[in-house]
Write a structure and sequence with these properties.
Length: about 450
């Protein structure tokens, strides 16, 4: 019986014991007097069971047929079932039943059926209570970025890291699958976002050396802000880089990881995708448009805070590694254990012992610049000698001969003067003792 029906039983029991009149019972039950009289009659004839709703326990007139139920559960068990980490949830299974099998079933109805058959289970874990940060109000005001390591291709292909970007105001998502969470993976995802939506106002990332790093003792003494290569790229674009101290701080993109790890893995399995290139093509063509249509939401304010994206040539100059190197006296620059000879009519712009910037693009192309102007160069072989070390290989140790200063070296003058003083002092002492030992003459 429902809570309301139990309350009616209690009031009518007081009427039966003559503690209340039927008129008073109608007021307490908030019913009309005639309706209360009908309930009182049923209570006198049938007892408390008579107040139970007549339709309780009966099959609904709009319920699905048993044949359809068996067919749906058979498809779920055959195509969308499996172990706890592999099986489809009721919402995702209902979507695929509608799109692939032509069976329109509500997600909640399918959830009840799957729970009854043991094809789904409620998995709840208590978590530490935290207060959720309010969303930003404008599109492009804050974009969260993070990498998710997961067996995206399961055993069909190599492991990988999904670089995921999510707008804080709208949940608009962009993702790229690669091998590792490297600077080129992060820069590639950010460039793809800029080319599609524009330059965001701020970027929310992890506190990793890839994005942010701690200052060195020298930088702390000078009061300099430590900047990584990725931070330098964001500075050129005018993007504020914010580092989160915990995963909960950027919870939106973290929850997006969970959604991808559930839905994307299963969809990649059904498409039999085996490589990162195929996965990125599927993400761009099918998965991300469908995902954004389903999970994106309108921003609180309609103004777009994205700035206009630079041209392709300007983006090429921004998304590259820049390292400062010194020019030797013979106009040679060393970088990554490679040697480059500056030449041509422009080499005089970079003086010897001056500083140049070596720029490396994602495809490995190199450029050497001095005060923003490109210099001509050619690569030369490494000079032979023990001073040159290959990366990761220590140079062989050479035993050095101990140097001994000659006898006439200025360092030996102090010792020579001290020896002379000791000799003179010894001779004077001997003369004094000799004079004291002579006998005195008699008168």
């Amino acid at each position: 019986m429902s809570k309301r029906e139990l309350a009616r039983v209690g009031v009518l029991a007081r009427v039966k014991s003559q503690d209340l009149r039927v008129v008073d019972a109608a007021v307490l039950l908030r019913l009309s007097y005639r309706q209360t009289k009908r309930l009182w009659k049923r209570y006198r004839e049938e007892g408390a069971v008579g107040l139970k709703h007549r339709s309780a326990g009966r099959r609904s007139n709009r319920a699905h047929g048993e044949e359809l139920r068996r067919k749906v559960l058979g498809l779920v068990r055959k195509k969308y079932g499996g172990e706890v980490g592999e099986r489809f949830g009721p919402t995702l299974a209902a979507e695929h039943l509608g799109s692939e099998d032509g069976l329109k079933i509500g997600a909640e109805t399918l959830r009840r059926w799957m729970l009854a058959e043991g094809l789904w289970s409620r998995e709840r874990r208590r978590r530490r209570h935290r207060r959720r940060r309010e969303r930003k109000e404008h599109l492009g005001e804050l974009v969260q970025m993070d990498g998710s390591f997961h067996p995206w291709l399961e055993k069909r292909g190599p492991e990988g890291c999904l670089m995921d970007m999510a707008d804080d105001a709208t949940n608009t998502t962009l993702a790229r699958l690669g091998e590792e969470e490297t600077i080129w993976a992060a820069a590639g995802a950010l460039r793809a976002w800029i080319e599609r939506y524009g330059v965001p106002w701020a970027l929310y990332v992890d506190w990793k050396n890839l994005y942010k790093r701690c200052a060195t003792p020298r930088e702390r003494l000078r009061g300099e802000e430590p900047i990584t290569q990725f931070g330098g790229m964001c500075r050129k674009l005018g993007i504020e880089l914010i580092a989160a101290s915990s995963p909960q701080a950027k919870g939106r993109v973290e929850r997006m990881h969970g959604t991808h790890q559930d839905r994307l893995v299963k969809k990649l399995r059904r498409k039999r995708i085996r490589t990162h290139a195929e996965a990125n093509a599927y993400l761009e063509a099918e998965y991300l448009p469908e995902h954004n249509r389903r999970f994106a939401r309108p921003a609180a304010r309609r103004e777009d805070y994205h700035r206009r994206a630079p041209g392709a040539a300007e983006l090429d100059r921004i998304f590259r590694l820049e390292s400062e190197r010194a020019v030797s006296q013979d106009w040679v620059v060393r970088y990554a254990n490679r040697f480059f000879q500056l030449e041509g009519p422009r080499c005089h712009y970079a003086p010897s012992k001056g500083k140049v910037v070596v720029c490396e693009g994602p495809d490995g192309n190199l450029a050497i610049e001095y005060r923003g102007q490109a210099l001509a160069w050619r690569e030369i072989p490494a000079p032979a000698g023990p001073c040159v070390q290959e990366r990761g290989i220590a140079a062989p140790s050479v035993a050095k001969r101990k140097w001994v200063p000659p006898s006439d070296h200025p360092w030996r003058q102090a010792a020579r003067r001290a020896a002379e003083r000791r000799e003179l002092g010894g001779a004077a002492a001997v003369a004094t003792r000799s004079s004291l030992a002579l006998p005195c003459a008699s008168p």
